[in-house]
Amino acid sequence: MFVINCPYCGERDQQEFKAGGEAHIERPKQPTELSDDEWAEYLFMRKNIKGVQFERWNHAHGCRKWFNMVRDTSNDEIKLVYKMGEKPPLE
Amino acid sequence: MSANLRVKSSEYIDETHRVSFKFNGKTYYGFKGDTLASALLANDVHLVGRSFKYHRPRGIMTAGSEEPNAIVQVNDKTNRTEPNVRATEVEIYEGLEASSQNCWPNVNFDIGGINNLISPFLPAGFYYKTFMWPASFWEKYEFFIRHSAGLGKSPSEKDPDIYDHRNIHCDVLVVGAGISGILAAKNAAKNNFKTLLIDEKNELGGATIYQNKEFNKIDNQSSSDWIKKEINGLKNISNLEIKTRTSVAAYHGYNYLLARENLTDHLENKDKDNKVRQRLLKIRAKKVILATGALERPLIFNNNDRPGIMLSTAVKKYADFFGVKCGKKNVFFTNNDSAYESALCLYNKGIKVDAIIDIRNNSNSKIVKAVKQVGIQIYWSHTVVDTNGYRRLNNISIMKLSNDGMTVTGNRINISCDCLGVAGGWTPAVHLFTQSGGKLKFDEDNNLFLPNKYPSDQISVGSCNGNFNLNEIMKELSIKLKEFLKINQTDFDNIVIESEEETSKRNIWLLPSDKAIGKTKPFVDYQNDATAKDIKLALREGFRSIEHVKRYTTTGMGTDQGKLGNMHALGIIADTAGVKMGELGTTTFRPPYTPLTFGTIVGRNVGEFFDVFRRTAMNNWHIENKAEFENVGQWKRGWYYPINGETMHQAVQRESKAARESAGILDASTLGKIDIQGSDASEFLNRVYTNAWSKLAIGKCRYGLMLNEDGMVYDDGVTTRLGENHYLMTTTTGGAANVLGKLEDYLQTEWPELDVYLTSVTDHYATASVCGPNSKKILKKIIPDLDLSDENFPHMSFKEAKINNIKCRVMRISFTGEHSYEVNIQASFGKALWEKCIEAGKEFNITPYGTETMHLLRAEKGFIIVGQDTDGTMTPIDLQMDWIVSKKKYDFIGKRSLYRSDTMREDRKQLVGLLTDDPNIILEEGAQIVSELNQNPIQMLGHITSSYFSPNLNKSIALAVVRGGKDMMGKKLFIPMEDKTISVTVANPVFFDEENKRLNA
């Protein structure tokens, strides 16, 4: 059970949050221009990394805001949380 | 009771307070402070149960939570009964009843004991190998296996007790209140850390509290006297909370721990009522100090499981702490010094010790010398090769060990004894450490798995960290505490310790016998009856991974999770396979450390509180009018309203006819309602629904279909434009929360530029839906000044109105195909509105109808229900709802997916109507549909999604999804059922009033 530092509310228990899958997959602006393969890439393909992963989380039972998290899936260490729209860290 | 088994009075047992209890129906007496195990031993009862597989007689082995054998059923045949309780943990009270498990007809004569005689035919994996074939026989095998297996009986009545959960936050959590835990907690609390100290026993002090007085001294006092003073001193520390009878069950990441606090199990039954029995503590600690101690290991030798064979420290604890001698003729069998400490303690209490058998060649430690001095015979370099006595040990045979320890030599020596204390060394209790994600390392010299890498802010101290010498424990504790808590000193930095030092050791995982291994029974896992022989067999049959061997032999899979024998299993595998134990690793330690009751896990969430029920404002009216209810999501919805003992079918037929012939009323309050405001609200709706919204006039309503990005139908409902930048969206009852979540997700992450705000208002409004040809007349009576003419208030439009000065919103929308109105009012007036409608509708025979009639009426019209006629694989095209998918809009959620090659396939399952050839046969929802009866294998084309008998059409109707169904209009299909085949014809899914004339009737 993580302790998650919501960028809007501060530290809260994991049970207040909902995981929302891989982060920084932007919805294509012009879906009709895409081939079936390109659209499938957006729709279905997710990385599921063992190690450092960029994820979306929602403070579902709190401020209900979505935000991003950098988490090491091998040991559950949360390295960073940052707001939606903010650039992901390079490292 | 046999008083002669009580020795010198113990300070932990209140001999003035006699307690009577029953075991297997017989009344015994013990004293306050006894456990069930100590009281039984005081009564000379060793045989307490039968083993799982061979039904061998088993006795009490330990004095703690690691007990594998003495597991009993407590308070059988009452509503408080509990199976699989460790007799070593049950504190006795007046009226306690306990009984043996896994034996029939009784523990002294058990039919299942035959399994012991035929055990050569019951090797590891016997069940897997034997009951595999023929497959059809499984049901017959299962009956016998289930009948003869099982540990205890689950309760059959409702649990009368109360359970609770509590969240605790602390700076430092200390698990285990032995000497290390007590000093750690005291020093943390004194340095301003908010500290919680937990121990599973009812007394603090661990093993130190009854420590041998001569060989461990602190500041020139016996260590037990010294620790008592320390325990007394804890009472005055303000920021220290102590929880006894509390067992930490799980240690999760981020220092989140679960512990079970036992509050009433030690009380008399009459004192248990109306109290919280067990409380689950959910602990979030900044720092954790594990001082969980170590468990004594048994030794693995032939027939090492007889009642009377116990751990040496258990023999000592029963004598020292409980004042009970476990046998009249005591012998110890050891590979280290701890048996000598036990022997000396017994000797000092006047209990006879006949011999010590030691596999080591010699030892000249102080304690061994002391034992020699009192004249106890020691057999060096000997091992036990066999034991005798069916229900109770009566003698053992020993032989000399060869130098390599692999064989025995010389002649058997028989020693008569009724209690054998075995001492196989110590296993640090690293269970919680590994649960938290900690990695172990193997100490080759001492054969120990020890904490290595800590995954969170925690330390292990004392013997759970592999330290067994008091002097070293205290030195290490002081250094570790200072570093961990960042403090300059501890209050025990300068104490003087005199402690016993072990000088020689020898370890043999599987001790040899003069018999071949195949003819012996050296038990490794007592509870699951796994022997060293089984482990070797598994290796011979090709199992290599320790996890596989565990599952094949069931070693370590009992309720005790192999706390005693797992290390030996690993050792035997390593020796047999010729690998190093460090490379072999351990099996995974899983929570809970000791079993938890279901009550503890669910806490207050039992019965009605198991899940939250949501009820509408009209709920009491439904109850008063004898509605049957249906659960829809968390909502309780009126299902149908039977009168005069009607069946559901009769009630639904009556309600459906009334709604079409005159007037019906439905409680539609449960539909999800989302208030949407903002200057981009219209654009937002354009993006989330498949149809166009920009041109919807203020005061108008529109039906919308929402897709997932994969093109599949997700939700539907009517949305009303209340103002220029203001909409009210309705969703399905079950989908409301998910729809809101999804819309928020898109707004926050994909389209943050849109000026749109979403608010859930589901609970704020109550909705009465009045439908039928007389609905207009009824509404006129309720809201006389509202112009209901078709010109002013046409279908799919909305008006604001007032009923007795209470504002309400009236939508003229219809889910039944009838002329109908939905009146939304502030929820607190919901019941009043409903009663007003009923009153006004009386002259028109207004009939309340529930969800079942609603489903029937909409099915007559071919309207879909998302989740019933769709299942997450249906596109709007599959539903033949092409009309609602905008061709003009550039984009909306799911649009691109409608042009994927897969979603454009012609042979997808498509929604069609079905009519049975015999109009009286009602199809079963879920039934499979085929077109050919003589195919092999027969091809399934689809299934029935909705099916009813329509009273308005006087025939059976059904909706179904059928592969390529769009082009099958008029085609005959078949529904093969168990007893008959039903023939049907594909039809238009709109069965009733295709021209929608009734909407304006």
Q: Could you say what the CATH topology of chain A is called?
A: Folate-binding fold
Looking at the overall shape, the CATH architecture of the largest domain in chain B is 3-Layer(bba) Sandwich
Q: Biggest sheet of chain B: strands, sense, closure?
A: 7 strands, mixed
Q: What is the C-level CATH assignment of chain A? A: Alpha Beta
Strand order of the largest sheet of chain A: 3-4-5-6
Rg measurement of chain A, Å: 15 Å
Strand fraction of chain B equals 25-35%
Number of helices of chain B: 23
Averaging pLDDT over every residue of chain A, what do you get? 94
Indicate the CATH class of the largest domain in chain B. Alpha Beta
Structure summary:
Chain A is mainly beta and 91 residues long. Chain A is built from one helix and six strands; from the N terminus they run E-E-E-H-E-E-E.
What does this structure look like?
The complex is a heterodimer of chains A (91) and B (1001). Chain A has one helix at residues 36-44; strands at 3-6, 10-13, 18-22, 52-58, 66-72, 77-83. In chain A, a hairpin with a 3-residue loop joins strand 1 (3-6) and strand 2 (10-13). Chain A is mainly beta. In chain A, strands 3-4-5-6 form a 4-stranded antiparallel sheet, with no helix packed on it. Chain A has a two-stranded antiparallel ribbon with strand order 1-2. The mean pLDDT of chain A is 94. Chain A has one domain (3-26, 39-83): Folate-binding fold. Chain A is globular, with a radius of gyration of 15 Å. Chain A starts with a strand and ends in an 8-residue tail after the last strand. Helices cover 21% and strands 28% of the residues of chain B. With 1001 residues, chain B is of the alpha+beta class. Chain B is elongated. In chain B, the strands form 13 sheets. In chain B, strands 8, 9, 12, 13, 14, 15 and 28 form a 7-stranded mixed sheet that branches. Chain B has a 6-stranded mixed sheet with strand order 41-42-43-40-34-44. In chain B, strands 46-47-48-45-50-49 form a 6-stranded antiparallel sheet. Chain B contains 23 helices and 50 strands. Chain B folds into 6 domains: 3-117, Roll (Ubiquitin-like (UB roll)); 162-294 and 428-498, FAD/NAD(P)-binding domain, CATH 3.50.50; 300-424, FAD/NAD(P)-binding domain, CATH 3.50.50.60; 513-610, Arc Repressor Mutant, subunit A (Orthogonal Bundle), CATH 1.10.10; 667-849, Probable tRNA modification gtpase trme, domain 1 (Gyrase A, domain 2), CATH 3.30.1360.120; 901-1000, Beta Barrel (Elongation Factor Tu (Ef-tu), domain 3). Chain B starts with 13 loop residues before the first strand and ends in a 14-residue tail after the last strand. Chain A binds chain B through residues 1-3, 13-14, 20, 26-28, 30-32, 34, 36, 39-40, 43, 56, 58, 60, 64-66, 75-76, 84-85, and chain B through 252-254, 256, 284, 437, 455, 709-710, 741, 744-745, 748-750, 752, 890-891, 895-897, 899-901.
